[in-house]
Amino acid sequence: MTTSLSFDEILWPAATAVPADRVSTGSPETSTLVLHSENGTEAGLWRVTPGEFSTIHRGYTEIIVIHDGDGELVHDDGSALPLRPGAIIVLEDGWSGRWVIRQTVTKSYTIVPQSDGRPARHG
């Protein structure tokens, strides 16, 4: 099956709040549109509104392409990766840090499981 979408045609699922125990600033909300899921690998689109929150990648690697917005991913060691249109980022299994979102970010993503074939949730 082939899927073809244009960003202006996307019907985003309802946004959900990032869990309060992960949020350090603002009230960020996310929306995820899964485009393909098979054998634990998942590809889709994800959108997040401004705010700051923590994340830990366990059991999977995530490949990200930023399409809109502005922010950064700040690793626990303090290094930062800019989140701007055109940025391509690979977050390896075990990455932990925080999302700092200044302007709503839209990304495409692919999650590749590391072991048991079940992807963990991203973002």
UniProtKB/TrEMBL annotation:
Protein's UniProt name: (S)-ureidoglycine aminohydrolase cupin domain-containing protein
Domain ((S)-ureidoglycine aminohydrolase cupin): residue spans on this chain: 41-109
One Pfam family of this chain: Cupin_3
Organism: Microbacterium panaciterrae
